[in-house]
Write a structure and sequence with these properties.
Protein name: Alpha-glucosidase
Helix content: 25-40%
CATH architecture of one domain: Sandwich
Keywords: Glycosidase, Hydrolase
Shape: globular
Pfam family, one: SusG_C
Largest sheet: 8 strands, parallel
CATH topology of one domain: Immunoglobulin-like
Number of strands: 20
Number of helices: 16
Strand order of the largest sheet: 11-10-9-5-2-1-13-12
Radius of gyration: 23 Å
Family: Belongs to the glycosyl hydrolase 13 family.
């Protein structure tokens, strides 16, 4: 089967503010990323998904854009960005821009002109008269009402996120043309594609309370393809929170000419009480995880495509979430890596995941930066929730967990910024032992497991194209096969901190990768150690 470059690739997400500070102002920047390209080359990744570096007042850490064709001064200049694109290309790495076009910043010139009464720009956003009171009871994803009142003009405007992030009116063809211009601007700079933030929301009809997957969504995406993407060998990754294996082909079947792949979040909701909020916690059930991940492997048609990820800038650190930081940090982080990277789809590594970085414990509101966590804290306090309950939720699921600075070495400030500089956000104190230098010096570290997994994907079409079958095992054993052109691999993991007996009716001819120093032959009587994971070629 003909393969696109992004199907064989492994992507690495960089959160620029927290990756590497080059000028000792405490904030990561573009020159810092360029300086670390050799590290990413060593890891072996093919593309960088770059969280937003556009001009922004930073209400939502760059996801509130005030100028799509300018660089946030804290991050550097357009010349720095052009240098990064060129240096990455020389290293064989593509730069993928994070395009936030469901909404802008309230500081964007379009919105300022709209507030000033310019009818052309007013139709770029969603305004409603206050004549009959609140338009409806829709809420923002960050808490509170999604309609912001403007008493001076007797109007409301609509915002699905912070009030400083007014939603664009995609029904207006002029808005769509502006987005096509922005995309072409960056394609001319040489980027390798776009990650499209909350793209399933652009077809919303707020008056009918239709938010995700509105009726015009797919026509808009097809128009985007026609007007911008046709003829470019680039990747488009759609963040689509409500997508299922049955609806994903609407986005990613090449015949429909929309997107390359989707980000879906069904597995990410498995430690939440169903249909409540991300903060309402429950323990992970491994059987549910197997079911959800396997459904994406078997129910998604071959011509459609999915992404594979455990962590990103909006998710807590996977080792803290579903691994075992206290007793088996290396074994459990390797288990999670092997399980995911041997599946069909394009893997995404979030910065520091390859080091085994963990969540950072906080217990004061002054320690929070994330607007979503701050809103949650304030709302729960107003409801009378206990501090213990609030902090347990924030420490488990808060977005700040992913945003602590990258841990490069054991010097003060972890090599992220100067030793006498105050970083923009607190470092995790465990940087003295969990850091890139320590991992690079240890041939058995998690870094080299990620490196090998990337190498395997490049070498074996089976990983990209093979059929997937989940094996029927005890709850805490996650075992599946991948088969392609007469060859079958078995991937087996003990997803628990206790020994597990498993009997599989196979014999192995080769051990491909494992997180224990074992080789595997007959598999019909195994006693797997905590988090023991192996990949073998079957006879």
């Amino acid at each position: 089967m003909a393969s696109k470059w992004w199907q064989q690739s492994v992507f690495y997400q960089i959160y620029p503010r927290s990756f590497q500070d080059s000028n000792n102002d405490g904030i990561g920047d573009i020159k810092g990323i360029t300086a670390r390209l050799s590290y990413l080359e060593k890891l072996g990744i093919d593309a960088i998904w770059l969280s937003p570096v556009f001009a922004s007042p930073n209400v939502d850490n760059g996801y509130d854009v005030s100028d799509y064709c300018a660089i946030m001064p804290e991050f550097g200049t357009m010349a720095d960005m052009e240098e990064l694109i060129a240096a990455a290309k020389k290293a064989g790495i593509k730069i993928i821009m994070d395009l936030v076009v469901n909404h802008t910043s309230s500081e964007h010139p379009w919105f300022k002109k709209a507030l000033a009464g310019d009818p052309h720009y007013k139709d770029y956003y969603i305004f409603r008269s206050d004549k009959n009171g609140l338009p409806n009871d829709l809420n923002s994803f960050f808490g509170g009402c999604a309609w912001e009142h403007l008493p001076a003009t007797n109007e409301y405007y609509f915002h699905l996120f912070a009030k400083e992030q007014p939603d664009l009116n995609w029904e207006n063809p002029a808005v769509r043309k502006e987005v096509w211009k922005i995309m072409n601007f960056w394609l001319q700079k040489g980027v390798g594609g776009f990650r499209l933030d909350v793209i399933e929301l652009i077809g919303k009809i707020p008056d009918q309370k239709i938010i995700g997957d509105g009726p015009a969504l797919h026509p808009y995406l097809q128009e985007m393809y026609r007007e911008v993407l046709a003829g470019h060998d680039v990747v488009t990754i759609g963040e689509t929170g409500s997508v299922t294996p049955l609806t994903a082909p609407l986005y990613t079947d090449p015949k429909r000419k929309e997107l390359s792949m989707v980000f879906q979040f069904q597995h990410m909701a498995l430690d939440e009480v169903a249909k409540t909020s991300k903060w309402n916690l429950k323990s992970l059930n491994v059987s549910e995880l197997k079911t959800v991940l396997s459904r994406w492997q078997t129910d998604l048609p071959k011509e459609a495509w999915n992404s594979l990820f455990w962590s990103n800038h909006d998710q807590p650190r996977i080792l803290s979430r579903w691994g075992n930081v206290a007793d088996y940090p290396t074994k459990s982080s390797k288990m999670l890596a092997i399980l995911l990277h041997l599946m069909r789809g394009t893997p995404f590594i979030y910065q520091g995941e390859e080091l085994g970085m963990t969540n950072q414990y906080v217990d004061k509101i002054s320690q929070l930066d994330d607007i979503e966590s701050i809103h949650y804290y304030e709302e729960e306090k107003a409801k009378g929730s206990s501090e213990a309950t609030i902090w347990q939720a924030i420490n488990t699921k808060g977005r700040d967990n992913a945003r602590t600075p990258m841990q490069w070495s054991n010097v003060p400030n972890a090599g992220f910024t100067g030793e006498n500089v105050t970083p923009w956000y607190n470092l995790n104190p465990n940087y003295t032992t969990i850091n890139a230098q320590t991992r690079l010096d240890d041939p058995e570290s998690i870094f080299y497991t990620y490196q090998k997994l990337i190498q395997l994907r490049k070498k074996y079409p089976l990983i990209v194209w093979g059929d997937y079958d989940l094996l029927d095992t005890a709850e805490n054993i996650f075992a599946y096969t991948r088969s392609y052109e007469g060859e079958t691999w078995l991937i087996c993991a003990n997803f628990s901190d206790s020994k597990q007996a498993v009997s599989l009716p196979y014999a192995a001819t080769e051990t491909i990768i494992t997180n224990y120093p074992h080789t595997y032959h007959h598999l019909n009587q195994l006693n797997l150690l905590p988090y023991e994971t192996f990949v073998v070629k079957l006879a």
